[in-house]
Amino acid sequence: MRALQLAMHGLFVLLLLIGTIRGAQESSHPAPLVLGCVLLFAWYAAGLRLTPMRFGERRAVAGRVWFVVLFLGWAALVAVSTELSWVAFALFFLALHLLPRWFALAAVVAGTLVVIVAQLHQPDTATVPSILGPSMGAIVAVGISWIYSALRQESEQRRLLNTELVAAQEDLVATNDALSGAQRESGVLAERARLARDVHDTVAQGFSSILLLSRAGLAGRRDPEQLVEVLRQIEESAATGLDDARTVVHALTPSDLERSPLSAALQRLVDRQGGDLDAQLVIDGEERPLPTAIEAALLRIAQGALSNVRQHAGATRVVIALGFGDVLTLDITDDGVGFDATMPIVPSAAGGFGLRAIRERARDAGGHASVESAPGEGTSVHVEVPAEGPR
C-alpha cells in the first residue's frame, strides 16, 4: 500500500515536470504556464494529507474536493499547453483511488475528453498518438485499478478467513481442554467411588464386625468360654480386615513396583523414553528395601519430571540420579531450554501443574523438592525424602 502511494505521487510529479519543461520550451510566453504548473504542484503537495489512504474515511470528502480542484486546474493548464496531457495518466490513478467507482470512471472519461478536445483545438500539433495515448492510458489505469481492487479484496477475504480459522482453532483447543478436564474429573470421581466401595465392603465391614463382637464380649464377660470365642472371632475379623486393607493399598501401588525394586522400575522408565531423548539412570549408594509409599512417590516424581522434560524442555539429554544415604535423593537434570525459576508458575489449561505436583508428592512423603533453572541452561529438579517415610 505504501509503495503504491509513493509510485502514484512520483508519477504525478514526473509527468508534471516533463509537461512543464516541454510546454515552456514551445511557448512564446512561458511564465503564466510555469506559474500555473507551480501552483498546481503546490495544491497537490498541500492536499496529500487529505487522502483517505492516509487518514481514513472521515477525511474522504476533503480528499475528493481536493481532487476536483486539482482536476480543474490541470484541465485549465491543458487548454494552455497540450504537453500537460500526459499528466492525465496520474490523475486517472488518483481518481480511481479517491473517488467512488462510478465517479472515478466519470472522472477518467472526463479527463480523456479534456485531452482529446485540447488536441483537436490545436490541429498543428495534434497527432493520432497524442490523442490515442491518453485514451489507452485511461484504459490501462482502469485495468490496473480493477486488478488491484480484486487482489486487495481477495487478500482481505483471506485475512478474515485466517482470523476465523484461528478463532475456530482456539475454540477447539478450549473445548478439548474442557473435555479433557471433564474426563479427568470423571475418572477421579469414578476412582473415588470405587475406593469408597472397596473400603466399605472390606475394611469398614471388618471394623463393624469387630465392634459388634466387642459389644457381645462385654455383654457376656462373666462367661470365660464365651469371651475366648469372642476374642478368637475378633482376631479373625482383624486379620481379614488387615488383608483387605493391604489389598486396597496394593491396588494403589504403581505396577512397575509390584515385583521389582525402585531402581529397576526407574530403569524401565528410562528405557521407555527412546526417540531423540538420551535418558540415563545413575544409582549412588547401596540400594535397600524401602516403604512402598516412598518408592511409589519417587517413581511418580520421576515420571512427572520426565513428562515435563518431553513436553517443555526441548532437551536432548536427561539424567536421573537416585541416591541412598541417610536420606533418599532423586535428581532429574536435563540440557533443555530452561526457564526463569524465580518467576512464579501459575497452573493453567496450557500446563504448569507438573512442578507443583512434584513438590506436593515430596511433601506428602515427608521431604521436599527444589528446582534450579535459567534460560538456556537446562533444568535440575532435586528431591529429598526420609528413607523411613513421613513421620
TrEMBL record:
Entries under SMART domains matching the protein = HATPase_c (SM00387)
The protein's required cofactors: [4Fe-4S] cluster
- Asked whether the keyword Transport is assigned, the reply is no
GO cellular component terms, A-Z: cytoplasm; membrane
- Coiled coil stretches, renumbered: 151-185
Chain ranges passing through the membrane: 33-51, 63-96, 102-120, 132-151
Short name of any one Pfam family annotated for the protein: HATPase_c
Which InterPro entries does this entry report, sorted A to Z?
HATPase_C_sf (IPR036890), HATPase_dom (IPR003594), Sensor_HK_TwoCompSys (IPR050482), Sig_transdc_His_kin-like_C (IPR004358), Sig_transdc_His_kin_sub3_dim/P (IPR011712), Sig_transdc_His_kinase_ChrS (IPR017205)
Tell me the compartments it is located in: Cytoplasm
The record lists the catalysed reaction(s) as: ATP + protein L-histidine = ADP + protein N-phospho-L-histidine
Superkingdom is Bacteria
Query: What are the alphabetically sorted keywords of the record?
Result: 4Fe-4S, Coiled coil, Cytoplasm, Iron, Iron-sulfur, Kinase, Membrane, Metal-binding, Transferase, Transmembrane, Transmembrane helix, Two-component regulatory system
The UniProt annotation puts the region (Disordered) at 364-391
Single GO term (MF): phosphorelay sensor kinase activity
Protein EC: 2.7.13.3
> What is the role of this chain?
Member of the two-component regulatory system NreB/NreC involved in the control of dissimilatory nitrate/nitrite reduction in response to oxygen. NreB functions as a direct oxygen sensor histidine kinase which is autophosphorylated, in the absence of oxygen, probably at the conserved histidine residue, and transfers its phosphate group probably to a conserved aspartate residue of NreC. NreB/NreC activates the expression of the nitrate (narGHJI) and nitrite (nir) reductase operons, as well as the putative nitrate transporter gene narT.
Q: What is this protein called?
A: Oxygen sensor histidine kinase NreB
Q: What is the protein's species of origin? A: Flexivirga endophytica
